[in-house]
Amino acid sequence: MVDEQQVQQALRGVKHPESGHSLMELGMIRDIRVDDRQVRFTVVLPFMDVPVKDQIVNEARAAVEGLPGVGRVAIGLAEMTQKERTHFMSFSREPGSAEGVNRVKHVIAVLSGKGGVGKSTVAALLAVALRREGHSVGLLDADITGPSIPKMFFPTQRHPDNSPLGILPVESETGIGVMSINLLLPSEDQAVIWRGPLIGKAIQQFWSDVYWGDRDYLVVDLPPGTADAALTVMQSIPLDGVVLVTSPQGLAGMVVRKAAQMTQHMGTPILGLVENMSYTTCPKCGERIEIFGPSKAATTAKKFNMPLLGRLPLDPEISKLCDAGMVEKYSPDAFAPIAKELMASIKEKVSR
Q1: CATH of domain 4-80
Q2: Which of 5, 27, 39, 255 could form a disulfide with 114 if both were Cys (CB 3.0 to 4.6 A apart)?
Q3: What is the pLDDT of residues 204-219, one digit of tens each?
């Protein structure tokens, strides 16, 4: 009689045709079951339409059928979760010096479909709110060609230090560790004119070569859109989920729905939706004015079965503080409830 350990050993001998690593090492085998002479297991693929799918399945089948006592082999197919895909992709690159010693409990990406909706502002306020709750927080600015995070946190230009374990994030006034390409440039006005592969490499290094240390949360500010940079983060960094940012405009809603579809396709949990610039308050009479039209956030959230974390006002004070490098001094009233909803959403996703 063949047993599960023999099946595992046989599958360890099957190599991925592109990486050369064992299917077991890559995390591509799930749910091995042995029933008399029948063996069942699932081959887990990074994406269902990978070109080498048939070759992997055929070689796995042949390896198990070659075991004495095996009569029939049944193989199912499944797509990797986001964290499984991150593990799989890690074998295609050299690990950074800091990656093995970093201890980050939760990684949250902030994404919008288009620019101009205040995505970086939401990422900054989220980091600040989590820090006010007493958590250890890092903020990774993955918007390589349009970095704005350092400007929000530092009144003057700062540069990171090096350590034996890797680059050290620059600490903000309240202790948020910040890393951005703008912290590495001679001048904050210097343009980063790079193609996609270089941008992806820089993002990977911000994860693997930066010594984040022990952090409860790492917030990743993604560039707008659904192209290389967002894909790099979703494939290379073990995200707990994505926060989507939109505004009341119909155009912004349409594009954030594209971002939601991409996130679902990548198997990354959507933690919730934040509608920015949702309204403003008249300083004289206190009336709420919906400058960009009525809110569509609830409709979008319902369409993708995600929580509506909250609606943020269009507030001149936040612009003033961000321009002065003092975002941490913004009143917590507007964002604290959103941060609490987000933490509840993370707990729900993680417990599943």
Answers
A1: 3.30.300.130
A2: 255
A3: 889 989 999 999 999 9
